[in-house]
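seq as requested:
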Amino acid sequence: MTTITTVKTVERRRPAGRAAAKVGRPGIAWAAPAAVFFVLFAIVPLVLVALLSFATWNGLGSAQFVGMDNWTKLFDDPVLVKSLWLSVLITVLGVVVQTPLSIVLGVWAAGQQRNRAVLSAIFFIPLLLSATAVSVLWRALLDPNFGVPAQVKWLFGDGNLLGEQSSAIGVLVFVGAWQYVPFHTLIYQGAARAIPKVLYQAAEIDGAGRFRQFFHITLPQLRNTMITSGIIMVVGGLTTFDTILILTQGGPGTDTTISAYYMYQKAFKGFDFGVGSAVALVLVIVATIISLVMVRLSGYDKMRSTMEGV
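struct tokens:
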């Protein structure tokens, strides 16, 4: 009786109306620093790039407005279409390779296996390295004269893996997976640990084995995580630059010249920042459209919970 009276007394003392609303959600001032940062370092540069795409500028002096000349010149260049196709191809291959590996390793790392923590720590080491360091490392390891291919010629033939388009693309996909699978594994590990154990307990009572639990419980519960991870992979794949610069430099020929590297060639090698800005804008538009399509088709924008009914 005393407890009930105390609770009622506390409820009477709670602020009501506007006072209660003020306690519930922080004001807009809390978002101001992040908003200012985003505007200065994302929106403003994007607007400047869009304006520069309609001008000609070699990095010196003043930019000169040329209207649609840059865009006309750009779409008459067959390398642009090829670079967009290569960007999409490498991105899709990256998603296909990294997603299943990340899911399996993430679910495993979320368990209670022996030595799991030590093995996970070792596996996450590539995540601590920069893309430049990883590219330099694999450039040395894959050197046809002194690297691994030179020592295992029965497997790699002449050892020049970066000398043909198919093998060069395979190397790029492999190096990207080697570095970024640990990151996506970490995402899936956290999501897998959030799945209620009661679902697995009920499945065990019904006689479901580990494989059925994985496909009928784990994967459906990781649906939203898959979409988030996939969007990160797509945006990261479309904007890959440093790996291409160090490993292949767009070669052989233009066989690995993706859009980001094509932009670098136009702007910083050809000193045509107007066309380079147009390429950058095309890349932003393509990446945005693909991300929005993924969100729309997956239903992720509706934020349906995977915990309903639990």
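The two ends are 34 Å apart (CA to CA).
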